[in-house]
Amino acid sequence: MSVVLITPDNYQTLGHIIRAYAEQTVREYLELVIVAPSADHLDIVESDLECFPGYQVVEIGAFDSNAVARAAGVRAARTPLVAFAEDHCFPAPDYAERLIERHREAWSGVGPRIHNANPRSAE
Fold first, then answer.
1. At residue 123, does pLDDT exceed 60?
2. Edge-to-edge strand order for the sheet containing 31-36?
3. What value does the mean pLDDT take over residues 87-94?
4. May I ask the CATH class of domain 2-103?
C-alpha cells in the first residue's frame, strides 16, 4: 500500500506521523510517498524510513491546494492501493493491515474508522 503524505515545508512537519506508520504491523508492505515543494529543503531523517521497503519524494513546487498535492502523490504511487495520511491523524498499529485485508474482500469502498483522541474538546 502506498501512503501519501504532504508537507508544504519540511520533513519535521511529517516526522511524528512517519514514526506512527513505522509502528504498523505491515510496515514491510508500505511505500511512503512524500509530496513536497522541493526535496532540497526537506531534511529527511533516513533512519525513520529504514523499516519501509521504499519511499519516494515527489516535488511539485509551491502549492495552495492539498488536493493538487494528493493527486501528484497518487500518480506517483507504485502500488494499486493508495491511502492518504494527515499529520494530525495517528493510525492504530493494525490500521494498514486491516485496510489491506478489507480491500481483498468484495467491498465497493473501504475506509478507516476514526476515533477522537480529544473527546473532551470542542474541536
1. no
2. 54-59, 31-36, 2-6, 82-84
3. 90
4. alpha beta
